[in-house]
Amino acid sequence: MGCLRGLTLKNVFYLSSRCNSNRASIAKTNRKVYSRLYPTVIVNPDGSSYKIKYRDPRKILYLPFDVNKLTLEAKKARLAKYQVKRKQDIKDDLDDNFDAKKYQQFWKSRAQ
Prior knowledge:
Largest sheet: 3 strands, mixed
Oligomer: single chain
Order of helices and strands: HHEEEH
Helix content: 10-25%
Strand content: 5-15%
């Protein structure tokens, strides 16, 4: 009964508007941290993952990877993934062994 403690005629109007749950729809609630948290998956650098509740609506968060702990070969392989790949020239080797007489039966008209 904390709302009824200092009840006078002056603050009866304020009492009715402050003690119910509808006051948030009338005015902005002044909160530093909002209670809405979103389910999010955290992925560790080693590939393991777990679920948390995060303040922003994100599906997945990747933790940063420490490149300094890798070997020289692993660093080169990781860098090669991000390099621009050159397009390879594709040589078309078409065989010209098409026999038109084999499909000649389909060309004849049926209205004869």
